[in-house]
Design a protein that fits this description.
A hairpin with a 7-residue loop joins strand 6 and strand 7. The protein is α+β, with helices and mostly antiparallel strands. Helices cover 18% and strands 25% of the residues. The protein is globular, with a radius of gyration of 25 Å.
């Protein structure tokens, strides 16, 4: 084995036919390129788990570093040709992983091949430090008429050490692709690296008729009324309907979650938009319908609260009027198609 070399922070540089040169960065042992002992030119080395910054000049971003016992838990692989490298931490509390490929454009710096790092961290409940809901949070949902059974089916948990931080896992085909948090006093944030997708995506994967709501709690509320085929947008509503034409999918950043779920949404022949009754919620319904196609969209009108106002969302209806009233509101959504005023019937 060759002696340890210094792993650059901004990229991976390998000298063809030789081991990488020395540079100021993190020391790790590497494959002896002159040896044929490794099958397919691949060698595994256990290392302390320390992440690498992909931005030149920035300090390394540390991962678990082997935990308290400083375990050599990071498995590092490098191909002799210099075309590929990968790494993974096998500590369940961490799970940090990444890959590096040769740049497809093969840009060269002298006789060095520049390889761009592509880090792919697999989120897990352990790595996010999620834990079962406390009695306080279960009580918070109970006040909103959401049962513990519904919370468990949707994998709702809380952030460890923060008793009021509720976590909503975002999954695709059962795999955790992101997490959104909220406190009981309505402070919101997302886990870094969360995929732009719908909350409850797997519940609409094979549905011909689906309901889209404006928040995770509204999605849970619809389940209490018997609608499993429901998903929520991941972010807030716009202030008003845009007067501009629709941007191309790659530039439609505010609604990228729709394009990322296109394969799921294309299967639906009828889409119920159960957004909030306020102006931003109504604007959101219009923006969604423009992208999904108004001919297959229906919009919910929430029941009247009094002579001057209506209930704002699904959870308000569930909390004050019960699941039957909520179900009735969904069943009587109005068509948004210009050619029809026929109410929906998703029974």
């Amino acid at each position: 084995m060759s002696p340890p070399f210094h792993f650059p922070l901004s990229d991976i540089r390998t000298r063809r036919g030789r081991c990488p040169p020395v540079s100021r960065a993190i020391s790790v042992p590497v494959l002896d390129c002159s040896s044929d002992s490794s099958p397919m030119g691949l060698q595994v080395y256990p290392l302390p788990c320390v992440a690498l910054s992909a931005v030149p000049g920035r300090k390394a971003r540390h991962q678990c570093q082997g935990g308290q016992k400083v375990e050599r838990s990071l498995s590092f692989h490098i191909v002799r040709s210099g075309e590929f490298a990968m790494w993974r931490c096998f500590r369940t509390e961490c799970g940090w992983a990444g890959q590096a490929f040769a740049d497809s454009n093969k840009s060269y710096d002298g006789d060095y091949v520049i390889m761009k790092v592509s880090s792919a961290v697999q989120m897990t409940e352990e790595s996010l430090r999620l834990e079962p809901l406390s009695d306080k949070i279960i009580g918070y949902f109970a006040e909103r008429k959401i049962s513990e059974e519904t919370l468990q089916r949707n994998g709702v948990k809380q952030l460890s050490g923060k008793q009021s931080a509720i976590s909503f896992p975002y999954k695709r085909k059962g795999q955790l692709v992101g997490c959104k948090y909220r406190t009981v006093d309505k402070k919101f944030w997302q886990e870094k690296g969360t995929e732009k997708t719908l909350y409850g995506l797997d519940d609409i994967s094979e549905a011909d008729e689906i309901v889209i709501v404006e928040g995770e709690i509204d999605k849970l509320s619809l389940e209490e009324a018997g609608f499993i085929n429901c998903a929520s947008v991941p972010s807030g509503a716009p202030g008003k309907v845009s007067k501009k034409g629709l941007p191309s999918p790659d530039k439609d950043t505010a609604y990228q979650y729709l394009w990322n779920c296109k394969d799921y949404l294309d299967k639906a022949s009828r889409i119920i938009l159960a957004t909030d009754s306020d102006a931003p919620g109504q604007a959101l319904a219009e923006e969604l319908a423009k992208r999904l196609g108004k001919q297959r969209c229906w919009k919910v009108n929430w029941p009247k609260k009094d002579d001057l106002s209506s209930f704002n969302d699904a959870n308000e209806v569930l909390k004050h009027l019960g699941p039957s009233a909520l179900r009735k509101a969904i069943e009587h959504a109005e068509s948004m198609s210009p050619q029809s005023s026929e109410p929906s019937n998703i029974m």
